[in-house]
Amino acid sequence: MSRPRASLRTAVVWEVLREALVDRVKAVGRETLDVLDTGGGTGNFAVPVARLGHRVTVVDPSPDALFALERRAAEEGVVDRVRGVQGDVHGLFEVAERGGYDVVLCHGVLEYVDDPVEGLRNIAAALRPGGTLSVLAAGLGGAVLARALAGRFTEARRALADPDGRWGGGDPMPRRFTPERLTELVAANGLEVGAVHGVRVFADLVPGALVDAEPEATQALARLEEAVAELPAFRSVAAQLHVLARTRSETDPVAETEA
Ligand SMILES: C[S@@+](CC[C@H](N)C(=O)[O-])C[C@H]1O[C@@H](n2cnc3c(N)ncnc32)[C@H](O)[C@@H]1O
């Protein structure tokens, strides 16, 4: 994938995440946050987060990904702030600290785990009070739209009806989410759902020739992605969904209960 196209694919998430990190720094009164990147892979997010000065623990089952992460962290001069450990979300507390992190990332992982309910329960339990969760997962609507635009109408309809949102046996994605399903999963773990963004609404659908050689077009498309990201109609057809959530902090007012 070309560089402009790759940065287009992460721009919306990165903007939301960068703001969330700034908010967390202000809230905890520390410049350096403890960040856990579950299924962090080769460090697409972990390394830039470490470059902002935060300490990042990456938990991933793939030794190859962790090796690439180490090399990348060295190249970017952040080895002292990135720690890669082999593990997975189901046995998370064998390798990570329960309630030990200001921010937890779970990007592109819930699609692949054996049990997303249990996985997300562990991920939520890794947060400190008031901590921030950033979840990115494949969107069902985006896949339906992409199959239909490719002339694969039956596959598009199959994805709509399939409980996991898959378009057939050859679909490389094990599971997709609607915005409702993803936010329900997050809220079921006692987290307060904040912003929900659609990511890559157009980026994967626009022919490469229209953007790759045209920096202005790439920028204009990035601005368009940003403009539609929070609009429910577009969110529903995004290739990915991003949910920001947080645990209740010790200082949050306790909800009034009826006598
Ligand atoms: C699509 S990649 C996403 C990598 C990274 N989070 C990113 O956004 O670039 C999915 C990652 O999830 C990891 N993974 C798969 N199953 C997992 C599990 N049960 N627990 C934790 N990570 C898992 C894979 O090894 C892979 O690195």
Provide a descriptive summary of the structure in words.
This protein has a seven-stranded mixed β-sheet, sandwiched between helices. With 259 residues, it is an alpha/beta fold. The protein contains ten helices and seven strands. 41% of the residues lie in helices and 19% in strands. Mean pLDDT is 93; it is low at 255-259. It has a domain at 33-139 and 177-198 and 227-246: Rossmann fold (3-Layer(aba) Sandwich). Bound molecules: S-adenosylmethionine.
Chart the SSEs and their pairings.
Layout: H1 3-28, E1 34-38, H2 46-51, E2 55-60, H3 63-75, E3 82-86, E4 101-107, H4 116-125, E5 127-138, H5 140-149, H6 153-161, H7 179-187, E6 192-199, H8 208-211, H9 215-228, H10 232-235, E7 240-246
Parallel strand pairs: 1-2, 1-4, 2-3, 4-5
Antiparallel strand pairs: 5-7, 6-7
Unreliable stretches (pLDDT < 50, length at least 5) are 255-259
Mean pLDDT: 93
End-to-end C-alpha gap: 59 Å
Named at the architecture level, the CATH assignment of the domain at 33-139 and 177-198 and 227-246 is 3-Layer(aba) Sandwich
CATH class of the domain at 33-139 and 177-198 and 227-246: Alpha Beta
The count of helical stretches stands at: 10
Strand order of the largest sheet: 3-2-1-4-5-7-6
Could you say which structural class the secondary elements and strand pairing correspond to?
alpha/beta
C-alpha-based Rg, rounded: 19 Å
Bound molecules: S-adenosylmethionine
Number of strands: 7
| Main beta sheet | 7 strands, mixed
**Assembly level:** single chain
Helices and strands, in order, run as: HEHEHEEHEHHHEHHHE
Q: What is the beta-strand fraction?
A: 15-25%
CATH topology of the domain at 33-139 and 177-198 and 227-246: Rossmann fold
Estimate percent helicity. Answer: 40-55%
CATH superfamily of the domain at 33-139 and 177-198 and 227-246: Vaccinia Virus protein VP39
Shape: globular
